[in-house]
Amino acid sequence: MIDKTTQAAGVADMLAKIRAYQSQMQNRAGAPEMPAMPSMPGMPGVAPLEDTNRIGKPSFAEVVRTSIESVNDLQSKSAQLREAYEKGENVPLTDVVLGMQKASLSFEATLQIRNKVLKAYEDILNMPV
Predict the structure, then answer these.
(1) Which spans in the chain are helix H?
(2) Which pTM value belongs to this model?
(3) Residue 25: its pLDDT value, please?
């Protein structure tokens, strides 16, 4: 029998993580970039910093790659749990179902993000010049 409270808690936890990531991305999108400080000719020995905007910011490609890797990890862990359960190893069915639900939810979220990115790309392509 499936423990519905454990399954609901896992799904709620995943949903909370997705919402936290969304709020982080919205906060980053709304924050204005700070302009670079100009060099001060009156202060010898103090050189301006080069390319300070790149410090601590992952590139878009890195964010996409790590996100897809985490979805892939969830799917592979789900498959491993399922195989272990099918072989008769000591794996609770609730863990198997919860792992499958996490993998499914993360894949669906990734699919929806892909659809929104493609829609935005199509909208940009269709803009009049």
Answers:
(1) 4-30, 60-86, 93-125
(2) 0.53
(3) 74
